[in-house]
Design a protein that fits this description.
It is built from 6 helices and 10 strands, in the order ααβββββαβββαββαα. By secondary structure, it is α+β, with helices and mostly antiparallel strands. A hairpin with a 2-residue loop joins strand 4 and strand 5. The longest helix has 34 residues.
Amino acid sequence: MHIKDTKPESLTAMACNAGGKDDLVWANLHRRLEESHSALQRRLNPSLEEKQNVLRARARVLAAGCKRKAESPDSVLEVVEFVLGPEYYGIESRRIREIHALSDFTPLPCTPGFVLGLVNVRGRILSIINIKRLFDLPEQGLTDLNKVIVVHAGPMELGILADAILGLRSISAKEMHPGLPTLTGVRAEYLKGITKESLVVLDVEKILSDEKILVNELVSSAT
């Protein structure tokens, strides 16, 4: 019976084996470094085709951004919502100069019933109109909640009396309808649109350009 020799390899053999493994590790490391260097050089010095691909991708991103900016104002309206009697109305925020509490105002004699009077807003004399009377809505008298919404369109501006301000909200233009059969007469004339929640958005430009309002003439005749 022969007993198998289990004596470990000599130190020289082990060193040779270890040296072979080290050589393989260093070879792999050098190969990876060369690949990384080549990739870096390609990134720093891209080919003409790669440059064109990058430029086309950037052009698509810029075009998409410009398209979103161009569509944004038309797709969403930012409005200030307020109360007039039993109904809810809105005015685009870009048409609003400021909103302040109803303070002292001067009534104007010999003017239409919807003209509440004149108010001094930081040195500017503005007329205030009571749209509820213009729209034949029920009135409850003036309270501490009443606000004056100063609107403008070009050089024209006036104050619109509101029962209360509810806040700012965004409305999708696609959700607005041109009108309802129940909205007739003056309200239909000044209507910009109405939402499915029955929020009536007023057209400030039409209000300020309507000769029936006569903003400038009313103020001039009083002064």
